[in-house]
Every structure is written in C-alpha cells, then in structure tokens.
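Good morning,

Attaching, inline, the backbone tokens for the sequence recovery test we're adding to the shared suite. The designed sequence is right after.
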C-alpha cells in the first residue's frame, strides 16, 4: 500500500503530539507533583467550625521534623489567619475550609490553588525550599468584596522562624504599698516542649529567681511550655519600695518581649475625699 508523503508526515506529527501530551501530564504528576485536590481532607459542618480542634484556633503548627500544618478558614471576605509564616526547607500541609460560600485558596507563584467549598476541607501539601513572599488570593467570585480577599505567605529563613508567642497582662496602676501581678502567657505551637527562662525587668537590678520584685529589679523564672500548649507565669510585684510615678517594665521570654508601664499612686490619691 502506498501512503502519500503528506499523509505520513501528518501521522508522524500527530504521534509526536500524542506522546508529548502524555509525557507532560506524566511529568507534571510525578515531577512537580501537580494533582487534583481530592476529598482526603474530609468533611466538616460549616456551623461548627469554631468547635473544631483544627479550625477553632487556625494557624501554623509544627507536626515534627520539618513538617508543618497550616489551618485556614475562608469566609467573605477574608482568610483567618490572613498571614501565614513558615520556615524555608519545610513541607507544609494546608487545610482550608469555608464558613459561608465557595472561595478559593490560591498562593500566587506556587502550585497551591484550590477551591474552598463549605462543608469540605481542602488539603494540599507543598514544599518550600527558599525564603520568599507570596500573595494569597481568592480566585472564586464570592461577592461584592471578592477583590479584597487576600492574604500573605512568608517563607522565612529557618533561624528566623519560631512558634512561640507571648502576651502579657498587668494593671496600669497600683497604690503604693500594694501587691500586684504581671501575668505572662507563653504559647508554644511546636511539637516539643519549650524550656526557657522568663525575665521581668523593672529598672536594672537583678535578684534571685522567684523573689517578689521590689524596686528596680530583674527577676527570672524558669518555664517549661508544653508542646502545642501554653503556660501562664505570675510575677508578683510589691510596690512598697517603689516611688510613686511611672515604672516601665519588660517581660522577655525566648527572645520575645512584652512591656508596659505601671503607675504607682499614693495610697491617699484618687480616693476622692476618703483621705
Ligand atoms: Cu472568596
């Protein structure tokens, strides 16, 4: 049988194209790991997101080694949290769900691009090798302010990353001679216990651990914050030897700082006639 030269050429071109298509799809799946988001993430009742262990306190947690989880809740028209920070050289599994309508979770410049359907948890795993900043946006029209729905992903150098958070709570004012407390809560979202020292500084003197702060002093307390937990420390402050006026204080834990000012007033001040 004689096949025309043109016919042979077209057959050859078609063959090359078919093999090429199969090769790109195979490469995409095996190489960069492009995959469809399936139902691995499971389902969730959008009305009880706040009771869910993963989504009631969304954000980044350390799973182990260089693996992290990022839980994100989408709703019109914001992501919670809007900003995600992970270390370089990490593998991050995103779990995203929606509280109201269908959104998307798209990390510009990466393979992360999924629909976020209420009732469904979208799960995807990404490796971040290099530090960088990525924009996060919603690709799925979700209402009047759809265009404002955005977030940010920071991949920071490993030595700049940590999952410790510090918050302090203290009164602004105390009467001279009274005791007061400065409370510090340290939370730890890592997979291991954080053993560290908390320091309260009022002025610049240093005293032994666990003493009551009396005047211009620094006290230290050892603290162990359990993995995925938090610990509250109480620093007792006795104002007897403080002068009246403003006293700046700083609590330092593991490189994090909280600070404030304690105003010590005369016992007779502010009593409005009871002196
Ligand atoms: Cu949206």
């Amino acid at each position: 049988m004689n096949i025309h030269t043109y016919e042979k050429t077209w057959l050859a071109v078609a063959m090359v194209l078919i093999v090429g298509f199969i090769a790109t799809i195979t490469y995409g799946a095996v190489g960069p790991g492009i995959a469809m988001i399936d139902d691995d993430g499971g389902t969730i009742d959008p009305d009880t997101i706040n009771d869910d262990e993963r989504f009631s306190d969304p954000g980044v947690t350390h799973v182990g080694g260089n693996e992290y989880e990022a839980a994100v809740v989408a709703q019109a028209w914001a992501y919670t949290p809007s900003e995600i920070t992970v270390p370089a050289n990490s593998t991050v599994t995103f779990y995203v769900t929606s509280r109201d309508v269908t959104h998307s979770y798209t990390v510009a410049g990466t393979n992360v691009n999924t629909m976020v359907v209420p009732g469904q948890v979208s799960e995807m795993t990404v490796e971040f090798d290099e530090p960088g900043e990525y924009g996060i946006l919603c690709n799925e029209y979700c209402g009047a302010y759809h265009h404002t729905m955005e977030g940010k992903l920071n991949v920071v150098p490993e030595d700049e990353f940590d999952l410790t958070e510090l918050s302090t709570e203290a009164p602004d004012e105390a009467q001279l001679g009274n005791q007061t407390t400065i409370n510090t809560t340290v939370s730890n979202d890592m997979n291991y216990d954080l053993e560290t020292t908390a320091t309260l500084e009022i002025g610049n003197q240093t005293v032994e651990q666990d003493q009551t702060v009396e005047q211009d002093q620094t006290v230290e307390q050892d603290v162990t914050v359990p993995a995925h937990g938090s610990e509250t420390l109480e620093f007792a402050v006795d104002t007897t030897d403080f002068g009246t006026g403003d006293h700046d204080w700083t609590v330092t834990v593991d490189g994090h700082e909280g600070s404030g000012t304690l105003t010590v007033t005369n016992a007779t001040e502010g009593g409005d006639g009871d002196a």
